[in-house]
Amino acid sequence: MKWTLAFTLAFLAVTGCTTQQPSPDQIRKETADATATAAKDAKAVAQGLADGLKQKGPINVNKASTDELKTLPGIDEASARRIADNRPYDTAADMVRKHVISKTEFDRIADKVTAM
Q: Is 42 a domain residue?
C-alpha cells in the first residue's frame, strides 16, 4: 500500500512538472488572441485620450448656454433653462441652495461645473 501511494505521488510529480511544448498552431492562436486584445485596449486608450482632449474643463454655470448645460449628465432642457434663469451663482453649489436643481442632480455634475 505504501509503495503504491509513493509510486502514485512520484508519478504525479514527474508528469506534473514536465512541460509540454506548445504546438506552432497553439502559439499562433495565443499570439492572435493577445494581439486582438491589445488592439482593443489600444483603441479604448485612444478614445479616452480623444475624449479627454475634447473636454475644456468645467462648465461655467454663469456663462454657459443652455445647450452647453444640457451636455451635463442628467441635465435636460428644463433644468438647463432653470439654471440659466437663476443666474448669477457665487458658487456652483448655489444651484442647490436656490432650489434650481436637487442635491442628487448636483452631485452628478459637481466635478463638471464651476461658477467662476
A: no
Looking at the domain assignment, is residue 67 inside a domain?
yes
Instruction: Give the side-chain half-sphere CA count within 13 A for 16.
Output: 6
Q: What is the pTM of this model?
A: 0.54
| DSSP state letters, 46-69 | HHHHHHHHH--SSEETTT--HHHH
CA 72 to chain centre: 17
pLDDT tens-digit map of 63-72 = 999 999 999 9
59-60 vs 113-114, strand pairing mode:
parallel
pLDDT in tens, 3-29: 666 656 666 666 555 567 888 888 889
